[in-house]
Structures are given as C-alpha cells and as structure tokens.
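User: Teach me something about this protein's shape.
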Amino acid sequence: MENVLSHLHSAHIERWVLRLQQYNFKVIYRSGRDNIADALSRLSPQQSPPAKSVAEEYVRFVATQAAPQAISIQEIEKESDKDPDLEAIRQALKSGDWSKCSESIKAVKDEITTVGRIVLRGTRIIIPKALQNKTILAAHEGHQGIVKTKARLRTKVGFPLMDKMAEQLCRSCRECQLVSSEPNPEPVKRTVLPDGPWQHLAAGLLDPLPNSDYLLVVVDYFSRFFEVRFLNVTSSKIINCLEDIFAVHGFPIFLKTDNASNFTLAEFEDYL
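Assistant: First, the predicted structure itself:
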C-alpha cells in the first residue's frame, strides 16, 4: 500500500488509501452485469459525517512536519485564515469551482488538501503572503546560494513565484556574491596576423538557401578578402570550387576549416 501511495498525485485518493489501510481486504473484479449496484454511488448523502480517521491524523502530521522551524504551525494557520488567496482555495475545495483561483493553482488542484485553515499541496504547505518573505529569509540563512536555498524551500513549502523570490534575494545578497564561485571563462586567443595576403585562409559552409544550395566561403586572414561559391555539398564540388579560387589567387600556406564531414573525408584530405 505504501508503494501505491507514493505514486499517487491526488490528495483525495491519498485519503481513500489511508482510510483503507486499517482494513484487511481483497479486491475482486466483477463485471457490471453481475454487479449492477455500485456501492460507492449509492451512498446516502444524508448520512452523518465519519468520525476523525487515520487520514485526518496523517494530514495533520504532514502539516506539522512541513512547517519551517523558524515559523510555528500556529502562526501559519493564523495567517492562512486571513489570506484571501488561500480562502479562495478552501472554498474551491468545498464547491469544486476553481474559477476564482490562479492558473498555477488550477494546474495542481488535484494535489491540494486542507487541515484546519492550512492549505497543503501534497506534503508541502502553501505559505500565506504575509509569511512568504519570512520563509525565504529562513531558507536563505547561511548564505548557501540559489540552488541550496530553493532546495530547502521545496522540501517543506511551496507558493507561487517562490523560486523567483529566492533567486532575487540571493542575487541581491552581498554575502552570497562573496562566497559563490564564478566559473573560469575560457581564455581568449587572438589569431596571429599573417605576414602577407593569401597565406592563411579559413573555409566554411553556410546554411542552405531556399533552393537547397550551400554557400562555400573562403576568407583571407590578412586582408579579410573573401570568395563565395554556390554549390551542392559534396567533397568533389568543394574541391572544384577551391581549385577555381586557387587558380585565380594562388595556393595558401594552410587552409583552416571547422572539421565538418565534407572537410574530413579521404577525398578532401588527398586533395590537400
């Protein structure tokens, strides 16, 4: 039963599973022809509400454990009672009408449940607006950076824009900037200017045109002079274009390419 519960996302179904844990039963499938009356659909709406069960005790235990250590569960319940957004969620749970709730809440409505005035999404408390900054500051204690601050928050609480608020706080915190390590950028290496024109060349293919032709571009490092040819991409076509260019300007000392497959084939290497 624990494995089943861990894969469920609906808080309503979790409550059913928890209620059934105290019974020893066997599930047997019967077709509708042999089981015309569905017991669950024939429950009388006038029956008295069930007494406090294992499910309610479990949900209250989850709420108590999910409360941040810096904020008491009583304080969260007090502020949740005054929060209009959480009140809209509580009313939506009763009526089934989620039109007054935000889109982010509607997307996870099957995971939401309540205990008292506290609203939970799964096993995480939805913090009221009055305590959101206090919660972010509590998770930020120790200046451990954006990733760890958000990880701390996600273990117990959740509310809209929580990640964004945590990022803004960490980016504006001087201590976080001092202890965070910046990645070492790759050093920039300048290309040494050749002694004269048409000694060191670079060649590359540009993306195809609408007619499927590619552009072969050959650039002189010294003068920035370039030659352009239209072609279908094959090694033999590239060789023919290079021979035409070299017939006009002469052979270079070396030709630098981006190691695309057309420049690494044996036919092209033999030509070089």
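Now, about its shape. The chain has two domains: 2-31+53-179, 200-271. The domain at 2-31+53-179 is CATH 1.10.340.70 (Endonuclease III; domain 1). If you'd like, I can walk through any region in more detail.
User: That's plenty for now, thanks!
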